[in-house]
Amino acid sequence: MSALRRKLGDEYQVVSTSASGGGLPPPRSAPRGKRQRFVDKNGRCNVQHGNLGGESSRYLSDFFTTLVDLKWRWNLFIFILTYTVAWLFMASMWWVIAYMRGDLNKAHDDSYTPCVANVYNFPSAFLFFVETEATIGYGYRYITDKCPEGIILFLFQSILGSIVDAFLIGCMFIKMSQPKKRAETLMFSEHAAISMRDGKLTLMFRVGNLRNSHMVSAQIRCKLLKSRQTPEGEFLPLDQLELDVGFSTGADQLFLVSPLTICHVIDSKSPFYDLSQRSMHTEQFEIVVILEGIVETTGMTCQARTSYTEDEVLWGHRFFPVISLEEGFFKVDYSQFHATFEVPTPPYSVKEQEEMLLMSSPLIPPAVSNSKERNSSVECLDGLDEVGTKLPSKLQKITGRDDFPKKLLRMSSTTSEKAYSMGDLPMKLQRISSVPGNSEEKLGSKTTKMMSDPMSQSVAELPPKLQKLSGGGGRMEGNLPPKLRKMNSDRFT
Fold first, then answer.
1. Entry pTM
2. Is 20 helix (H, G, I), strand (E, B) or coil?
3. DSSP readout, 153-198?
4. Which residues make up the CATH 2.60.40.1400 domain(s) of the chain?
5. N vs C: which end of the chain shows fewer Cβ within 10 Å?
6. For the domain 181-356, what is the CATH code?
């Protein structure tokens, strides 16, 4: 125990769940009554079919399978009874032929040729049939050529004997070679465990193979049997739900050489999404495990089954390691196959953990949208383009470059976007921007300066006459004629 604690830590406690284990069983809150299981631990299904009515005749239509499915005591009884009745019937037929021909009264007459030599009563007829059926020989009793009905009966006996032998011997051979006993050497852990693995809450159980011969193409499946009621009010007493044990990743295909731990990750798609340690005391469910594979020695398909009820699922436990490295081989210790130990596990369900994670995460502030301002600026640019195309060519030359108003609006829109984007900055940067040295007045002066520079450049590019009319770079609207002033004001409005 001390070595185990040094290896795993002081917070882990070893718990043996087997009857022969040295540890104590895990404590339970309150003992429950015996649950009615759908599948026993040995794999037998607790289902009985009743009130079949006229459907019972279907068993006779597949009589061979019905005979194979019977228990061994009934198979042996049918085997002995069939041979006994067949032998007595055929022996009676030979005795009837001897009686009808009068061979029984003339058996000791040397001048008389009977149908079967040395048959003078029923025991002698029975011995003749056994010698013929078992091909022992005709040392003392034999068929003569004076009896055609005996030859016909002999042919019928050979055909009927072959059919009976093939049916009964074949049935017994299949019964003996059935892989049900191979399933006895496939082990399942007595309990299932729920704990964290790779950061996810996982349901785990263990499977093992006691023989050295492998199970070819071994595959495992899990079914959850749980009662539920549909939204329409229909009650389903044994609703079957699929538990994913690696079907999407191929982990359900097992290389069953050493004991393996089968895992079912509990997520939003799992039926155990709402299962917590507290709710396990009130839930009622049954997990059916089905292991299928091909027996390597016989090539026949074998299936092993077991089940786990809610009382057999241990919350916060993990299986004890059973594989150790020896000199030149790996050793499996099956004495610890069912043993588990406690590990720190949150008692909450996956759904509750996700809700707590969302509540503890910081809220993300919504970003300020400048789509309206951008759209308005784009609309202004489009309007100016339309007005510019309507002006005469002379006025377009007077105003300088064609994209002059468009540049002004673009520069003003960028400044407005910068002003609006201050709300998206963190609090420290907003405080820095609110310092008097970085006030809005300076920003406004910069924008006006940027807007005035293109104006001065455009006036400088005008012809000398128009520069004189503008008064050396001032506003030229006051010196323009009334018609041009009106047209220019309509353009900018």
1. 0.58
2. coil
3. HHHHHHHHHHHHHHHHHHHHHHHHH-TTGGGGGEEE-SSEEEEEET
4. 181-356
5. C
6. 2.60.40.1400
